[in-house]
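chain and backbone:
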Amino acid sequence: MSMFYDLEIDRMKSAREAFYKYYQFPFTASAIKTYSTDGDLRVFDLIYALIEGKLELASTGAEPLFQAAWYYNYSAIDKLNGKFNFPCLIIYLFGAHIGFAGAVWTDTPHVQVLCPVLPLFYHQTDTKMRERAARCFGAAKKAIIRKLKILYERLDFERDPPINFESSPSEGLEHLTLP
């Protein structure tokens, strides 16, 4: 990952190999209809983790976080049934930086950056940055392996949702009035 790459495809191949070697994340470049991801993890054709990268920030027409958010949106929209909110971890890379974001469906898709973008060129004696990076990578590993994958594997689309997402938040509150 610390090399210079002329092509995004080579950089992302190296990133997928590194994530597999060190974290056992088998990211696979695949298609979502007419779009191609740099890598994703799926259960039952449902994406629970995405990786998207660029050679540099602002070097192409789309930024990696927004492009991954679009892929997430596009992959989940056909599967929406009011019974599940499709959480997904997004890992985005640009230049010598990495970021982590979470995505989830409520009534619309929501994407939230989970930690500051991490520079991958910090000095080995910078213990604060090393600790921050270790915590972010550790949290990503826990989220993907111990939580999201298991959640998706146990998914039951026949079960009724515990909350009716179709109703308005103010429904049933007609008796409350403001002074």
About this structure: The chain has one domain: 8-153. Residues 82 and 165 are 6 Å apart (CA to CA). Strands lie at 31-32, 35-36, 39-43, 46-54, 88-94, 97-105, 109-113, 118-119. The longest strand covers residues 46-54.
